[in-house]
Write a structure and sequence with these properties.
Blueprint (H helix, E strand, L loop, with lengths): L1 H9 L3 H4 L8 H5 L8 E5 L9 E5 L8 H21 L11 E5 L8 E3 L4 E3 L14 H15 L7 H23 L9 E2 L14 E2 L8 E2 L3 E2 L15 H4 L5 H14 L6 H11 L9 H16 L4 H12 L5
This protein binds asparagine and zinc ion.
Length: 322
């Protein structure tokens, strides 16, 4: 109720105020167009305390530090995808300032969203380079914030794998949008360019061919399944959230492949509506999510549409029960 009340403050017209039941969809379309990005980049200088020292505010010139400038640009690109394509104003849909810290920790092999901001390590230099080097990774971390402020998917088991998959989907879309790539042209890789040349692999994950992103002596083989036949039951990784995400990731890829054109158009709109439309439970299973994408496809394109067909076919291919 409090969130709904706060949302009202931001709705300009009486007409828009009448339909605040689903503030991120219907009201979002009537609300003023999204404002500009508000970015703040901090430098942890190898420590693990947040946010660190402020190095670049919105509108300020380049710092000359690659990680800081990549984070600044990546957040801008991500903000632009949400604003231009989905009419969303930042992480919370209401212009939330975007904060990121770079040079977090020593030889730190990860990036994450901590519930309030994005954090990027430099990598150890042996396996990983700096995590800001990949735009899909920046988009992935910011999407964790979008999920937190929309469906709020729990970070474990199937809901957690869906949470991870949302981040991969929108991370991939940011990269494709910036590069102007169609679904057919895109690599569908998450974290391309993060590995050092020492590693036998191309990226952290492949949405097109889950399980094939790397096969390395040190890292082992990419553990992602590409259908429910390979679903991994494990207590590690919050119940395999970074593993089983391969299944819904491939479903999204298959929709985009079937429809052609730009993946941020119909496929992106269907997934975005599913995530933010207000009816997806935080504990959604793959089946609940899949049915919600079908409902969104019907709502946006109709039940006789090629989009609806493509979504149904994709979930059948990855063997998620509908
Ligand atoms: N890079 C990982 C992610 O965003 C970090 C984590 O597992 N929390 O999913
Ligand atoms: Zn993630």
């Amino acid at each position: 109720a409090r969130a709904a009340k706060e949302a009202l403050v931001h709705v300009k017209s009486v007409q828009a105020a009448r339909i605040t039941a689903r503030p991120e969809t219907t009201a979002g379309m009537l609300a003023a167009k999204p404002g500009p990005a508000i970015r703040t980049i901090y430098d942890a200088h190898g420590a693990e305390s947040l946010p660190g020292k402020l190095v670049r505010k919105e509108g300020e010139p380049q710092t000359g530090d690659a990680a800081a400038d990549e984070a600044y640009d990546g957040l801008g690109h991500t903000h632009r995808l949400y604003a231009d394509v989905f009419g969303r104003d930042s992480i919370d849909g209401r212009g939330l300032p975007m904060d990121a810290t770079v040079h977090f920790g020593k030889l730190y092999d990860n990036a994450f969203w901590d519930g309030k901001q994005m954090v990027f390590g430099d990598g150890d230099g042996a396996v990983f380079q700096r995590f800001t080097a990949s735009l899909s990774v920046i988009g992935h971390e910011l999407a964790h914030g979008v999920t937190q402020f929309s469906a709020g998917l729990a970070y474990r088991n199937q809901a957690g794998a869906l949470n991870e998959s949302m981040s991969d989907v929108f991370g991939a879309l940011v990269e494709q949008y910036v590069k102007g790539q169609s679904a057919a042209e895109a690599s569908w890789l998450i974290g391309e360019g993060l590995f050092t040349p020492e590693v036998q692999g191309q990226a952290l994950r492949s949405m097109k061919a889950p399980g094939t992103a790397y096969d390395d002596d040190v890292l082992g083989k990419d553990p992602q399944p590409d259908s429910m036949d390979g679903y991994v039951r494990t207590s590690a990784d919050n119940g395999g959230v970074h593993i089983n995400s391969g299944i819904p990731n491939r479903a999204f890829y298959l929709v985009a492949e079937a429809l052609g054109g730009n993946a941020w158009d119909a496929p992106g709109r269907i997934w975005y509506e599913t995530l933010t439309g207000g009816s997806l439970p935080a504990t959604a299973t793959f089946t609940v999510f899949a049915r919600a994408t079908l409902a969104a496809a019907v709502e946006l394109f109709g039940s006789d549409s090629k989009e609806h067909d493509a979504v149904r076919q994709a979930w059948e291919t990855v063997k998620v029960k509908l």
